[in-house]
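Two proteins follow. First one:
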Amino acid sequence: MLEMMVTLVIFLGVAGIVMTAMMQMTNTQGSVANRTAMHSSVRSATELLQQEIGQAGKIALPTSANGGPTKMVTAITAAQITDPLVGYSGAVVLDKAGGVYTGMLLVVDSGDQEENRRGHEPYCRHEDLYRDFYLTHTANAPVRVAGAFASGIIPPNPPNTLGNPSDGFNLKMYGDINDDRNMVYVVYRCDTAAGAGHHKLTRNVAAYNDATVGSDDIILDNITANPPDPGQTIPAPCFKYQVKSVSPNDYVVDVSVTLTVQSQNLDPQTHQLQQETKALLNVSPRNIFEGWQLAGAGVANRIQPMPPTVGPAALTLSTQ
């Protein structure tokens, strides 16, 4: 009987140790599962942000099948350029006008005959170009676009004078973001305010010339305020910008993104919500960066102006 009691005590002790270890392992696995899900969600969001920031500022025309121009129908002969200082002052037309807006810099012809001219009257069926051509061009000379938007990421205040700028919690960009020759306007909103319905990272996208804006798509629904920057007491913003200026434009050449997310479930060990902060530093909008370099080298005919439809009114509408 004594031996059985000793054996039973030993067995119960071992069983208790095993059960404690199993419970600890279960809790650890729960913590790991929470953190894995949390990490996966924020990683997907930051990868999307990194990709779209990199594409911001890219200019494109629709394909010919979608109404984009490919050629200048009008021929310009040497006899029409009566004064080499004035150039040809007659009207010319393109084969199509899709995607062309007033002020867009179009490249006409190629090689030594290449000229840059601005689009005019964007809603005409056949697109007029501003006049004053100084070189001859055969009929159906090719037409394309080149360069980048200086304001592909709407600069913050200061020095932005465009109105409705990007800020620490609203990232606004436009261009051929999806690399499909369709220009869009995108707004990311990082909402960390207290209360129900907040704690979300959302994305809103619309065609660059579309006045109607759909509802925000939720990218993350578990974000929270970021930890303060060193030496600060208030939460750090989600977006920060490095701005370079080459008159008359401001260029956002670098964006940093900081997002703090929390787990959906309580940690089995601490009984608290877990948090993870993910930071993307030095995300360069490569098209805008190249535009800034061109502007700094004095190449102004590759810096595209902001489309009129992506002005203050459109920006206000897109952030409702």
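Second one, unrelated to the first:
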Amino acid sequence: MQVNITFRHLEPTEALKSHAKEKVEHVQRYIDRPSGAHVVLYLENLLHHADITMKAGPFLVRGQAKSPDMYVSIDQAAEKIERQLLKHKDKLKNHKLPAAANGSRPLDVRHAVLDAGRQESDRVVKSSTFQAKAMSVDEAILQLDLLGSQFFVFQNARDHSINVVYRRTDGKLGLIEARVA
């Protein structure tokens, strides 16, 4: 697995590099198919920040921490990722996939970012396409947490409809279910 380490507003040292790499390699034992990690170490307002992002198959896992000591920040960020992965692994072990998910095919979904200030023909600023895989609502919430995202689009394994789970401003989760009228 490739580990990229970036230093911002901080002198890069071999000791910090080896410590960060060691922590990432320790966490990767919980991942079936580790493909890469990016570690960003920086100093801001006299606090040492460590942001670790790991790609594990289709999942992206993030851990962020800050403290007065960079080594402690790296340790805390790696521990956050380790807790996320252990929680995910336990949920997968205790969760059985519904039979409906086995026969369904992923749907292609297009996500576009629009600029409300532009004319209708020029509004699309960015567009991406991904597959909405069949899963239960619980699995979608788990994926939302693993990605650290605000929303997650998926195909509901129960009725094959397109659903969205999202994080509300009050911290709770919401569910949008789209059904044919």
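SUMMARY FIELD: Residues 54 and 61 are 5 Å apart (CA to CA). The radius of gyration is 19 Å.
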